[in-house]
Design goal:
64% helix; mainly alpha
Length: 180
């Protein structure tokens, strides 16, 4: 009889994603949305022109940006690639922060490092997309992806404190977890 059979895995419950993890992911998504705002990006690159020097050779600029409209004359493929890269970044932060204890100092370090690694993973995709746009061969794909990952990691280390700070503040105000 089907009703009498108990299947142990059917009674599993998934762990809830905490407010700290949602805060870290939300702050990351907000940063990606701000970087996708064309006016702000123009102001930043105009004020600090040296930031765009690696972009002159095809390395992606900054962490991935979430563009709501096509950016300049780059088109839909670029916009979709950037959106996917931003999704990878937000998912990396959400999943990494979700799996760690939520002490404020540990949350700050975990979110910062997750942002850096997520930016590196997104840079890998963005570099490969640049090589595809440039009609590169296999060595171009490898080189652009590698430089995209390295510069993504550097940008993540540089800007990772922006989503890490709200996550640490959320961890500070979160209720203490009960021992199991």
């Amino acid at each position: 009889m089907l009703g009498e059979c108990e299947v142990p895995y059917m009674n599993m419950s998934l762990p809830r994603i905490t407010r700290v993890a949602w805060t870290a992911a939300g702050a990351t998504a907000l940063l990606a949305l701000l970087l996708g705002w064309e006016t702000l990006t123009r102001q930043i690159t105009t004020a600090a022109g040296l930031l765009v020097v690696p972009s002159a050779v095809g390395v992606p600029f900054g962490p991935p940006a979430l563009h709501l409209t096509p950016f300049g004359e780059l088109g839909t493929a670029y916009t979709l690639t950037e959106g996917l890269a931003a999704l990878i970044l937000v998912a990396a932060v959400l999943l990494r922060v979700h799996r760690r204890p939520h002490a404020p100092g540990r949350t700050l370090a975990t979110t910062w490092w997750a942002f850096a690694l997520g930016s590196a993973a997104a840079g890998l995709l963005r570099g490969a997309a640049t090589a595809h746009t440039a009609y590169g061969d296999a060595s171009a794909y490898l080189t652009y992806a590698l430089f995209g990952a390295v510069f993504g990691l550097l940008w993540g280390l540089l800007l990772g404190w922006l989503p890490a700070l709200p996550a640490a503040l959320a961890a500070r105000s979160a209720p203490a977890s009960r021992p199991a």
